[in-house]
Design goal:
mainly alpha
């Protein structure tokens, strides 16, 4: 069995779907670019626990916080002004916090890939 230092194993809550997506994303990068990608992606991704906390705060304190954090400003404003779509939307986000985190992290992986391709030759 081949064992090597995989930097993505450093994320304690990286889902298999996210790991697969990230590995596909960096497959065409050289080692220097992969290091840079890892550095950029580390700062951009949100953990599943973070998304759970944002969803709980969004349910009880500031409706739509989880949507603002993921960059969905329009949905965040809608949740804010409708009290989380009468709590139903906030409860659904609480149930689906893993998929919210996964979708956000996929967007950040693609964005990090684009930054890496432009910054490192």
């Amino acid at each position: 069995m081949e064992t090597y230092n995989n930097p993505y194993m450093g994320f304690p809550d990286m889902t298999p779907e996210e790991m697969n997506y990230v590995q596909q994303t960096v497959s065409g990068l050289n080692d220097k670019q992969r290091q840079y990608f890892y550095m950029v992606y580390t700062g951009k991704r949100k953990s599943v626990q973070d998304m759970l906390i944002f969803s709980l705060v969004g349910l009880f304190v500031v409706p739509g916080l989880q949507r603002f954090v993921t960059g969905q400003i329009g949905m965040g404003l809608l949740y804010l002004f409708t009290i989380g779509l009468c709590f139903v939307g906030s409860i659904m986000d609480l149930i689906n916090h893993k998929s919210l985190a996964n979708e956000y992290n996929q967007k950040m992986a693609y964005e990090s890939f684009q930054i890496t391709k432009m910054a490192v030759a």
